[in-house]
Amino acid sequence: MFTSRLTLLRNNVFVKTGMNVAQNNRPLLQQTGPANCQQKIKQPTAGILIIGDEILKAQTRDTNSHYLCKRLFDFGIRVEKVSVLKDDVDVIANEVSSFSSLYTYVITSGGIGPTHDDVTFEGVARAFGDELILHPELADICKKIFKTDDPGSPAMRLATIPSTARLNYGFDRQKGLPSRYPVVSVRNVFVFPGVPSLLERNFDMLAQDMFNGSGHRFEVSEMYLSCDEVKFAPVLNQAVDKFKDDVVFGSYPEYFHSYYKVRLTLQADKAETLHDAEAFLKAALPQECLVDFDQAPTNDAATKISRLVESTSPLAKQVSRARKEVDACLAQYSLDEICVSFNGGKDCTALLHLVHAAAADKGLLAPDTKLTAFYVKEAKPFPQVEEFMKEAAIRYNLNVMTYSGCIREALAKFKADFPKVKVILMGQRSTDPRGVGLRHWTPTDADWPAMMRVCPILEWSYSDVWAFIRSLYVPYCKLYDRGYTSLGSMDVTLPNPELEETDRLGRVVYRPAHTLANQNTERIGRR
């Protein structure tokens, strides 16, 4: 009779098998991989097989390969090849056999369901000259899940696996228990489900034990440039030649990024080598092209803003005053009494960054705490604005409350929905059409819902807003890079003609909004 044993391995990963289970703390690869894997362990590699006709027919978007490549890289595993295969036993068998002999790890995704086209297990078995069996332990799991013990039922296809396979139970750290359903492996081939949420969950539960044994990690850095690749290609080629045995370079154009045109990546096995290559590039590249880009502008944003205030920048005084107004508001009101007016525009983007930084600095933003944002949607909103709103909601952990109609009616509805809110932080400036007569703290008019309007950037100019945003690398709506200087409804908003120019091909294009020289023409694109 088939019997199974349960052994607790390092990092709480469980392996069940009908054969002997290794009674030690070695990673899974050293228990299940082929002989040549021991020689590769210092620089482990991986091959990924994405299986499914639906991927090749573009009926389903493949996100699993991107996820796996990223996670494997984090563990110091170099992915050398990704193949997308149709649901064909021979095709799968040939590729599994080839990948298994070439790479330290092989990970498959898809083709392990209950239907006729789920043939991954059959392909893996054929790759190793193995036979398929109805695994008693998996059969028992399927019986409990699908309420059937019929060996010929579709459910039991999930329990029919290669006879030499191992069952790898991950550990659910939230529940403190082994996973309910295992990942099947044969030698160095690990078979994962194709459903992205299931693959990611199973991978995360197994990854620590699967990959930590190599002790290998990549040293990686990135550099950002504001010029085209043609301008710095000779210098990059020199670096590639100089460090060809120790550093891997990558150059990736970013045609529509707000802050840079090219992202350079450097990867090495040793930190010292990486630093030498980085120093060489920084010294040799055109200095005007180097961008000190901040990939995470919201991280420790209060400190970054403080540095700006303490600098010699002409903006320091304006930012200092605005920060004091935000701090005063957060001191006088609780977070559930405050909302931020936010519609995706440049002014309220600058304000939101200030408010979020101040609230985070004061410890007011727990993981489950959200800032409330008040958004009055335009009659015909730009898709780019809507997309930016979604991104900003994630970036700043916002609870965006959306309303339509005129501002007064929308505010009345908002006040009815959130009666506790007493103050609304606004990105209003004194040069705005509705900014005349406002002070930093101004109650709403008598015929409006009772609220205190706080306008921290009231005295800022158009150029102040852009200087703040761009000096801190704050993400903003992409329309501003296409010549729009003020955003409203699509039917009444055009690029600012002051920014119009002709490119080398004779096409009419528009410079970015932050290059506008005459600040008095900010709203010239609005009808």
List keywords for this structure.
527 residues, alpha/beta, Molybdenum Cofactor Biosythetic Enzyme, Chain A, Alpha-Beta Plaits, Rossmann fold, 4 domains, eight-stranded mixed β-sheet, 16 helices, 24 strands, 34% helix, globular, disordered N terminus
Describe this entry's structure for a reader:
The protein has helices spanning 28-32, 37-40, 53-56, 64-74, 89-102, 120-127, 136-146, 196-211, 229-242, 271-284, 301-310, 316-332, 346-361, 383-395, 407-417, 462-471; strands spanning 5-8, 14-17, 45-51, 78-85, 105-109, 132-134, 160-162, 166-169, 171-172, 177-178, 183-186, 189-192, 219-225, 247-253, 262-268, 290-291, 338-341, 371-376, 398-403, 423-425, 441-443, 452-454, 500-502, 508-510. It has 16 helices and 24 strands. The protein is globular, with a radius of gyration of 29 Å. Mean pLDDT is 89; it is low at 1-27 and 29-41. The strands form six sheets. It has an eight-stranded mixed beta sheet with strand order 1-2-8-11-12-5-3-4, with helices on both faces. The chain has 527 residues and is an alpha/beta fold.
